[in-house]
Amino acid sequence: xxxxxxxxxxxxxxxxxxxxxxxxxxxxxxxxxxxxxxxxxxxxxxxxxxxxxxxxxxxxxxxxxxxxxxxxxxxxxxxxxxxxxxxxxxxxxxxxxxxxxxxxxxxxxxxxxx
Length: 114
Fold this sequence. Notes:
Distance between the termini: 22 Å
Radius of gyration: 14 Å
Helix content: 55-70%
C-alpha cells in the first residue's frame, strides 16, 4: 500500500519535525564533543540520540494511520516501545518550547497537527 501525495508529505514532515526536536534536545542536554552522528534532519547528535532518531523515523515510516491520526498520543495503535515512548516524551517536553525560536514554521504546523 502506498501513500497518497498528501500523506507522503505529512509523513516526511513528521519525520523531519521529530528529528529536529531530537537534535534540539541533544544540543541542550549532551556535550558538543559527543555529537558525532547525524540525525534525519541533518543536524549533529550524539550516538544515543541518533538511535532514538533512527527509531522514531522508522516508526513514522511504518505508521499505518498517518492519513487519519492527529498525533501518536491519540493513536489507538501505540507502535513505540514503552522506553522509547518515554524518551520521546522527554524530548518533546524539552524541545517543544524551543522549537518556536529554532524552527518556527515546523513548530506551528506541529502544534496545529498539520
